[in-house]
Task: structure prediction
Amino acid sequence: MKRYPMYVNGEFAAGESGKWFPVYDPSTEEVIAEVADGSAADVERGVAAARAAFDSGGWPQTTAVERGRILLRLAEKIRQNAAHLAELECRNSGKPIVEAEFDIADTASCFEYYGGLANKIMGHVNPVPENAISLAMKEPVGVAGQIIPWNYPLLMAAWKLAPALAAGCCCVLKPAEQTPLTVLEMAAWLTEVGVPPGVVNIVTGFGESAGAPIVAHPGVDKVAFTGSVEVGKQIMRSASDTLKRVTLELGGKSPNIFFADADFEAAVDGALFGVFINQGEVCSAGSRILVERPVYKKMVEAMSAKAKKIRLGPPLARETKMGPLVSKEQFERVAAYLEVGKKEAKLAAGGGRAKEFGRGYYIEPTIFYDVDNSARIAREEIFGPVAAVIPFDNEAEAIRIANDTPYGLAAAVWRRDIFKAFRMVKALRVGIVWVNHMQPTFVEAPWGGYKHSGFGRELGPWGIEEYLETKQVHINLNEQPIGWY
Ligand code: NAI
Ligand code: MG
Result:
């Protein structure tokens, strides 16, 4: 069995506790590796290394061009090793291999994008009414603590590390305890591509024991988190003691809205893709499917017929369209929601464990319909392959239902009438709106939520802005004294 130590100050080593925790293949429920169980002592070492690299190690003083080249070399390494990384990601997370391959390609693209952006961070000249030059300069925020989830393991690491490194920050990253393997494989290449020791530290372990100490540590200047609302709130509270900058990407209950004039076939596929991609373990999952009355019944029937044919199977099999959920814990959480749903609404497809598999955390693609928007399955994030279909009568009602949620991450609108589609775009209180599509995500475009889905934006130029401070510089051009006193 392979043991994965954590990566601190350019070296792989066991945790201070000497303990290891198991990591699983959720399709077989078997342990596939052991990983160092990090604690506050390891966070201490990680933050000390990052602080030293930032304060005296010279990373922020490297030129932006040089940091960019390092990220491009890292992207190249990822592309060269894409098959291996995709297979490992697939085995550890349970996602279908074809999706894992997309994720690894997106990971490389993210490092390439920020490699290219590093030397395009511009300051400003401010037109002040003085004989002076007034500048606004961009500088790295310092040491970033980064805590990521298990649904897109290596890609989430890239979303956090790439903009931070391009900006000149140093990082202490904690992967999710369920899926720490691929980022540790990547860490093995950091020295070779030119990342100095201490600039990136990967502390592995659990949320309470390894995540919380990062958030509380006075040596960390900023925390970036993706995960549950509950932990996001805790992080914000804890970070307030040391006045850290905080960005949060939390969950959602995103509406996928279908008007009667939408292309019907595209709508059926779009509804299923929106909610079942990655087994529904997606923050932007279109888990509330709103359908206009004239096509409601037909749509529920067509979706259900197709959902029953979705191919579940071993994640490594190329024909597999849906794998198991990531963990026993997530399986049980989703299974509990299936029972809630059966009391709250009508069941059109799925509704239980996929029985054809003797083992593995497989859940059938599930569709509930006639769901009231006040039902728990319409309000709470399930994070599994479970759709709640809700009918509506007109545009105003669609808007009201869509926005009647604590969340505000994403939404999609399907209709041919472009004026009406644009009215919906404006009315929806979310950070991302797709029209006649759902889920495509690009490193060039901003990602993040309104309301309880968090704040701050990742990706694009917005993503690097979160790792930058703005310094005002005033250069007086008058040679005579100020002459006030
Ligand atoms: P979680 O929010 O507990 O875990 C996410 C990350 O935070 C992991 O790395 C975890 O170790 C860390 N963490 C946990 N407690 C922490 C603490 N007190 N301080 C610092 N770090 C901490 O999410 P979990 O338990 O894996 O999933 C629960 C639910 O959260 C899911 O069912 C889903 O609804 C939501 N979720 C949303 C995600 C998103 O992409 N927005 C990703 C993962 C989960
Ligand atoms: Mg948790």
